[in-house]
């Protein structure tokens, strides 16, 4: 019974983390232009290219899914 409760609790936590993860990713995407404006000019980063790279990779559905799957894998490893 205790094991079942622990599993249920873990599933609830992971579900909560997933919701928070996607929410935070969406907020970062919405604020991306503001975030990129904070890059110091001294760094000589091509901001439009960086934005395109971030949007096509970091904010892609494939990346978000893979990142969260890896996160859940790491949680499982800590429970062993």
Q: What does this protein structure show overall?
A:
- By secondary structure, the protein is an all-alpha fold.
- The chain contains four helices and no strands.
- The chain has helices spanning 2-30, 32-37, 47-56, 61-78.
- The two termini are 18 Å apart.
State the helicity in percent bands.
over 70%
Counting H and I runs of at least 4 residues, what is the number of helices? 4
Gyration radius from CA atoms, angstroms: 17 Å
Structural class: mainly alpha
Report the uncertain regions. Answer: none
Strand content: under 5%
Question: What is the total tally of β strands?
Answer: 0
Give me the secondary-structure topology.
Layout: H1 2-30, H2 32-37, H3 47-56, H4 61-78
């Amino acid at each position: 019974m205790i094991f079942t409760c622990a599993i249920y609790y873990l599933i609830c936590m992971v579900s909560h983390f997933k919701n928070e993860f996607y929410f935070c990713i969406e907020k970062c995407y919405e604020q991306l232009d503001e975030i990129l404006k904070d890059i110091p000019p001294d760094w000589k980063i091509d901001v439009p290219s960086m934005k395109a790279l971030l949007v096509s990779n970091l904010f892609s559905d494939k990346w978000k899914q893979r990142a969260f799957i890896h996160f859940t894998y790491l949680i499982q490893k800590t429970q062993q």
